[in-house]
Amino acid sequence: MARNFGDDFAGRPLIVGGGLAGMMAALSMQRPSVLLCPARPGEASSSMLAQGGISACVAADDTCELHIADTLAAGDGLCDESVVARIIPEGPEIIALLERYGVVFDRDAAGQLIVGQEAAHSRRRVVHACGDSTGAAVVKALAEQIRQTPRIRVMQGELRKIILHEGEVCGWEADIGGRRLSVGSPAIVLATGGIGGLFPYTTNVSQATGSGLALAARAGAVIADPEFVQFHPTALAVGNAQGRMSLISEAVRGEGAFLLNERGERFTDELAPRDVVARAIQAHLSQGHQVFLDARTLPGLRFAERFPGIDVICRRNGINPSTMLIPVRPAVHYHMGGVATDTCGRSTVKGLWACGEVASTGLHGANRLASNSLLEAAVMGRAVARDIDASIFPAMFGHVSENRLIPENSDVLPAVRDLTGECLGILRDEPALRKAEEALRPMAEQSDAALVALMMVCAARERKESRGAHARMDYPQQATTARRTFMTMSDCLGHVGKNTVSFHSVSEGVV
Ligand SMILES: Cc1cc2nc3c(=O)[nH]c(=O)nc-3n(C[C@H](O)[C@H](O)[C@H](O)COP(=O)(O)OP(=O)(O)OC[C@H]3O[C@@H](n4cnc5c(N)ncnc54)[C@H](O)[C@@H]3O)c2cc1C
Fold first, then answer.
1. Which end of the chain has fewer beta carbons closer than 10 Å to its terminal beta carbon, N or C?
2. Domain CATH code at residue 272
3. What is the percent of the chain where pLDDT is above 90?
């Protein structure tokens, strides 16, 4: 195996992932770093696809306290309040910083930021760019900044392994254009995004298969709340295509669009939290109804002007949203669970940080408030960079011991998707979860996809309550104490139907 410890990348912190979290970490870090991403920075990321925008309490009628209260209410008792109080107030400063990086947010004629309305927000507070193409505008500006910053070395490739010495990070191994490169480094930042690609229906890019989560778990990191998967209520339901589905942003409902069945009847509160709306749509579909979004008469708005990107997506599929109903169904959208971190982004493994969707800080609890994830990715990317800049690393990394290389079996992914689609959906129960666990367990050692799905299933089995995005048909009530899940890979691989997953009540604090 290639060892390349004299390489000029050696000793630099490695940042893995070219979405908002990874780019923000790279730009904020004053030390020379390596940014590793499979495509050019920004591409093949959820960040690039973001439509609605970034939540920040910038409007005259808004306050941080209101934004915090909405975040806690959506999180259904499971948010870590100290984390919420640390991240949410940074919204206005993050918007200003992104503007300094060259992002042009939409402003009105008086020069004020235009703020959109989204579900479960008590105020208009979603700052957007190019109408509904916020993610594309943000990643384009940051990618240009990265290009102009010589201390950031961009490498195109995929992280394959975190190398440890006595339980601490001392290097990494990546596939770089078919070449296997091993590099010594005291610090790795995982910013590898979500897990939607493990499910049959998702709004995520297909590359979002939780590889960073699996690598962290294999390195011994504690994983938090993996059972909490957010389904977006309104993915565009055209044809019978599986895989990536186009999103119809919640901002469309925020501007007044209704959810209707084929008889033209409304059946739910369109601005309830995502988990509530997704379950209502799923229940309606299960009863044999069709579900549509009616955006034909948005008050005071021309659809194509406010939502130009969604207008193009719909028209490409033969739907004119100004005159026609848009067929929708729920799809996997966001992972509240992830690598357990503190508010500096530190994981439980020394030398390993995580930020963005791959991490679980405790901000989102059981259900993420719309547009809080870009905010978290930016805030935590910067926090990680500051923490690494303030850290003292040894000049030499000593002897390197490697974990066994786990070859990914590409045949496994379709089987994993079948199981998650059948057993880890919007509504869950014990027989289905047990079936998934039994099928995934033999694959988990060899396959990162199966390992991540197994961790989600084990935690979902142990959570014998319904809370936020985790709805159990056999345990419809909420437990009296809100407890977060913390588990390691060995907890999970040793789990045989006993309570080996550890729970901590939210008031006990995180790692
Ligand atoms: C369609 C859509 C719309 C959304 N709209 C909004 C919105 O309006 N507001 C909001 O707040 N949130 C929104 N979200 C959620 C939000 O976009 C994501 O949570 C956020 O962008 C995650 O950023 P990230 O940097 O953590 O991950 P990502 O942006 O997904 O980036 C992860 C990067 O890591 C790379 N990667 C993965 N594994 C490896 C590996 N092993 N080696 C190297 N690189 C790797 C990926 O290719 C990618 O480049 C939306 C999500 C989707 C899918």
1. N
2. 3.90.700.10
3. 81
